[in-house]
Design goal:
about 35% helix, 20 strands, binds 3,4-dihydroxybenzoic acid, globular, six-stranded mixed β-sheet, binds flavin-adenine dinucleotide, 12 helices, about 30% strand, alpha+beta
């Protein structure tokens, strides 16, 4: 098989890139390790920035998002039982949208199926060849047979545990990492949310987040230790841990119910530099991870794709490689700002250190955020998404 761009991974970055390239006449094939059903079963991001909304529109798959997504003009932060609101609208004139990653993935999969662009699911032993040469190739096994795709470029959109980043010689790549000693235990339930807006909770018992997917479906997270086993978290135990971390009003409004999904995610900050190696480009979680606190992971994946698809369009249509040559620097400049914000939110809202000095600093940071319009504006600008 021959194509112009071979894309590894059918998560949001791979599917979005594929759709944008296809729309502009650039051939691509997606190779995904799992089945489509498995990809759709992963419950992850919930908050999307304007950059992501714009790209979904550009890719022609934004209709359901506009119909079902919930616009949020502010966010609430609860510190030891007292809630504060930060208005994105007043401070930046912008807003974010609550629309689940699962729905985005479904819209992108449907869009891809509608235009007949090829995706190979359940592809095993995916390997990348000749990324620094002139004839890059991707090989894999599917249906018990070996396959090969010849291409001009490879887009590594295969997430943190993917093969693309690992295919780069170690001397060509630098990894920056910070691992936090905590995780998030998430629960999805068919119950109305406690509040119209998301509530990020800082509490001496540990962090919590009240989020939603719709007016009838809630998503909650609580900070947990990394040693936790999901089996030892029956729903009742989750609700009992969540309740005391909330303010009185939220506690009274909380409607509990059986979980539809429950999972644990570790918290990590990670950046691989550069993001281009010859004819291989990394995008999304394959290149960088943020702890989920700032709601940035999927949005960063979208902004990488924004730079990358335009660079590839310039290459094919304008015969210019300027975009390709600048891809890594442009993407990383944005990545590091999101890394900073996600790290800051994580360190400020979680119970990480027992040292009373660190706790006092957390409280001082939050007090400043609520009292200073300048600090609140910086927060709001970062949350709704920095310009690119
Ligand atoms: P992925 O979604 O990881 O997709 C990669 C794909 O590649 C997968 O389908 C995988 O099966 C496939 N793959 C892997 N290895 C191979 C291989 N060897 N061969 C072929 N295919 C392979 N982000 C936000 O912006 N907002 C939020 O509110 C938010 N909340 C989050 C909450 C949680 C609990 C978690 C865990 C994450 C959250 N994120 C959030 C982050 C967001 O989910 C990720 O950043 C996003 O999924 C990245 O998309 P991706 O396509 O780059 O990678
Ligand atoms: C959700 C996840 C996040 O990481 C976040 O910061 C806000 C909301 C969510 O899943 O709804």
């Amino acid at each position: 098989m021959r194509t112009q761009v071979a894309i590894i991974g059918a998560g949001p970055s791979g599917l979005l890139l594929g759709q944008l390239l296809h729309k502009h006449g650039i051939d691509n094939v997606i190779v995904e390790r799992h089945t489509g059903e498995h990809v759709l079963s992963r419950i992850r991001a919930g908050v999307i920035e304007q950059v992501t909304m714009d790209l979904l529109d550009e890719a022609g798959v934004g209709a359901r998002m506009h119909q079902d997504g919930l616009i949020h003009e502010g966010v609430q932060i609860c510190v030891d039982g007292v809630r504060h609101r930060i208005s994105f609208k007043d401070l930046t004139g912008k807003a974010v949208m609550v629309y689940g990653q699962t729905e985005i993935t479904k819209d992108l999969m449907d869009g891809r199926a509608a235009v007949g662009a090829p995706t190979i699911y359940a592809a095993y032993d995916v390997a990348l060849h000749d990324i620094f040469g002139t004839h890059p190739r991707v090989t894999y096994r599917a249906d018990g047979k070996n396959h090969e795709i010849e291409c001009d470029f490879i887009a590594g959109c295969d997430g943190f545990h993917g093969i693309s980043r690992k295919s780069v010689p170690p001397r060509a790549i630098t990894a920056h990492e910070r691992v936090y000693p905590i995780g998030w235990l998430g629960l999805l339930s068919e119950t109305p949310p406690v509040s119209e807006e998301l509530i990020y909770v800082r509490h001496e018992l540990g962090f919590a987040l009240c989020s939603m997917r719709s007016h009838t479906r809630s998503r909650y997270y609580i900070q947990c230790s990394l040693a936790e086993d999901i089996e030892s978290w029956p729903d009742e135990r989750f609700w009992e841990e969540l309740k005391p971390r909330l303010d009185e009003e939220a506690r009274e409004r909380l409607v509990t119910g059986p979980s539809i999904e429950k999972s644990i995610a570790p918290l990590r900050s990670f950046v691989a530099e550069p993001m281009r190696f010859g004819r291989l480009f990394l995008a999304g979680d394959a290149a960088h991870i943020v702890p989920p606190t700032g709601a940035k992971g999927l949005n960063l994946a979208a902004s990488d794709v924004q730079y990358l698809w335009r660079a590839l369009l310039e290459h094919y249509k304008d015969k210019s490689d300027a975009g390709i040559d600048h891809y890594s620097d442009r993407a990383l400049a944005r990545v590091w700002k999101a890394e900073r914000f996600s790290w800051w939110m994580t360190m400020t809202l979680h119970k990480i250190s027992e040292n009373p000095f660190d706790v006092k600093i957390q409280l001082a940071e939050l007090d400043y955020l609520f009292r200073s319009k300048a600090a609140a504006t910086v927060f709001a600008e970062n949350y709704v998404g920095l310009p690119y």
